[in-house]
Amino acid sequence: MQTPSGHLVDPARGARLVVLASGGGSNLAALLAAHDDVAFGARVVGVVSDKPAAGALDLARDAGVASVAVAPADFADRAAWNTGIGEAVEVFRPDWVVLAGFMRILSPEFLARFPQRVLNTHPALLPAFPGAHGVRDALAYGVKMTGCTVHVVDDGVDTGPIVAQAAVPVLDDDDEAALHERIKVAERSLLVETVGRAAREGLRVAGRRAVFG
């Protein structure tokens, strides 16, 4: 079987995942917990962070997964960093690139290296409440239902085709922290399910629609 990148898949290992993370790595931990199961269909082969002290790098090391920090401060400008992080990810020959709490916008040049193979998770029901404060914005707007979204990354901010969503009710006594914690639980489950399915079945993008198979 071939993956979207053209690699032959070892059935015992699955498709190759590279995870980009900026923080503690709770979504990465969920993917690492799933990837030893052959039925998952994918394996994390590399972790890349923009922050040398990110907890996600520690998780990767503890799991025996190769990891690297590509910090913007180590580059002359943003364009050089864009090239550097693209090259760092490409070293791992990924079939899928997964943004799991990665807090930087990737350039069109980066996305062109991995066309329609970069997935992101966002803590709101897109297209509502995109950007860095999706949970806060949903709560401030007074919605009764929010949730999380996995989408294909494009040149915009949380504007790519939606792959999967899960709803999370907003409780009357919710503050941002409490709501975000419940969304994170749904987000981890949705991310594992969606990435595994994309790895096993493939994912086709036609306009605004992303379809498995």
Walkthrough of the structure:
The chain is an alpha/beta fold and 213 residues long. It is 33% helix and 24% strand. The chain has helices at 26-35, 55-62, 78-90, 108-113, 134-141, 176-201, and strands at residues 15-20, 42-49, 66-69, 96-99, 118-122, 145-152, 162-169, 203-206, 209-212. The strands form two sheets. The chain has a seven-stranded mixed beta sheet with strand order 3-2-1-4-5-6-7, with helices on both faces. The protein has a two-stranded antiparallel sheet with strand order 8-9. Belongs to the GART family. Pathway: Purine metabolism; IMP biosynthesis via de novo pathway; N(2)-formyl-N(1)-(5-phospho-D-ribosyl)glycinamide from N(1)-(5-phospho-D-ribosyl)glycinamide (10-formyl THF route): step 1/1.
- Reading the helices and strands in chain order gives EHEHEHEHEHEEHEE
DSSP summary, beta strand count: 9
Which range does the strand content fall in?
15-25%
- Mean pLDDT across the residues is 94
- Please tell me what the overall shape is: globular
Unreliable runs: 5-12
Tell me the distance between the termini. 13 Å
Number of helices: 6
How much helix is in the residues? 25-40%
Biggest beta-sheet profile? 7 strands, mixed
Specify the structural class: alpha/beta
Rg from alpha-carbon coordinates:
17 Å
Largest sheet, spatial ordering of strands:
3-2-1-4-5-6-7
Catalytic activity: N(1)-(5-phospho-beta-D-ribosyl)glycinamide + (6R)-10-formyltetrahydrofolate = N(2)-formyl-N(1)-(5-phospho-beta-D-ribosyl)glycinamide + (6S)-5,6,7,8-tetrahydrofolate + H(+)
Enzyme class: transferase
EC number: 2.1.2.2
Keywords: Purine biosynthesis, Transferase
